Predict the structure.
Amino acid sequence: MRNLAKPPKAYSSKSSKLSTPRSMPFESGKFDVAVSALVLNFIPDREKVVSEMRRVVRPGGKVAAYVWDFASGKGTAEHLNSAVKELEGPAFRRAGLYPESTTQENLKSLFESAGLTSVETRPIEIPVTFRDFDDYWNSNTAFASPVGAVIKVMRRRNYST
């Protein structure tokens, strides 16, 4: 946990905190809003995370999350995942993604199971464009992405990349 160093001017009077999601070191009802940004589906115990988010938000506050729609194949690395699956065969499962957790129905159920009410889900459509293939490749493999990790293992096994 740490304070964000320089919040944007629009938020200069607000307090922002980062924390590990499974056990937040904050008193109950401390925050107006808790948000999980593009990470909830990577966490095996999502129920605990959402319960913690609910706990640290004051009554009447907001608990929110957004995730890539992996269940519908709308993640930015879908082409790479398809190529890896073709090379690896039917046993390939995208590590750590829990794509089933990204459906609107499952997200709503997850938040309701944490005791949240008036839960709403909706898609947010955004275009993702790349300058060229190298930009696409680097954007999806040059950091600790699940498909990037699989490709690194494949390289070690002498697959052509």
Q: What stands out?
A: The beta strands are 2-3, 17-18, 31-37, 57-66.
